């Protein structure tokens, strides 16, 4: 499962930075087009933290709108689904953000 791989890499990188201290909260910013199902990610996070110093930590997800730039009319717009189409009707658009996922903060006990 895609979310399990993501959860495992998040847990691994948090462990790397917290050095075994108990972690209470992990905050993640997730782009709308990152292809992540928040509920599935939360479930996998619980699995991935079992037996680590992150066990029992809560995962807070902040979804971020994707943004794109239209090369035809030069406007920037918000994208909420994977169909990249500008309001002017052009599909000649470049995705600026929304595919990334990053840990924004970690609270240790
Ligand atoms: Zn346009």
Automatic annotation (TrEMBL):
InterPro entries registered for this protein in UniProt: Hydgase_Ni_incorp_HypA/HybF_CS, HypA/HybF
GO molecular function, one term: zinc ion binding
Superkingdom assignment: Bacteria
GO biological process, alphabetically ordered: protein maturation
Binding site for Ni(2+): 2
Signal peptide start-end: none
Residues that hold Zn(2+) according to the record: 70, 73, 86, 88
Keyword vocabulary terms for this entry: Metal-binding, Nickel, Zinc
Function per UniProt: Involved in the maturation of [NiFe] hydrogenases. Required for nickel insertion into the metal center of the hydrogenase.
Database matches in PANTHER family: HYDROGENASE MATURATION FACTOR HYPA
Family per similarity comment: Belongs to the HypA/HybF family.
Protein name per the record: Hydrogenase maturation factor HypA
Lineage per the UniProt record: Bacteria, Bacillati, Actinomycetota, Actinomycetes, Propionibacteriales
């Amino acid at each position: 499962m895609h979310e399990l791989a993501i959860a495992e890499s998040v847990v691994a990188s948090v462990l790397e930075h917290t050095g075994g201290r108990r972690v209470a909260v992990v905050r993640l910013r997730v782009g709308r087009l990152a292809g992540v199902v928040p509920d599935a990610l939360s479930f996998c996070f619980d699995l991935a933290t079992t037996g680590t110093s992150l066990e029992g930590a809560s995962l807070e997800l902040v979804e971020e709108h994707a943004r794109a730039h239209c090369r035809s009319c030069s406007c920037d717009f918000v994208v909420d689904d994977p169909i990249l189409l500008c309001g002017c009707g052009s599909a000649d658009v470049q995705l600026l953000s929304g595919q990334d996922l990053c840990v924004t903060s970690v609270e240790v006990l």
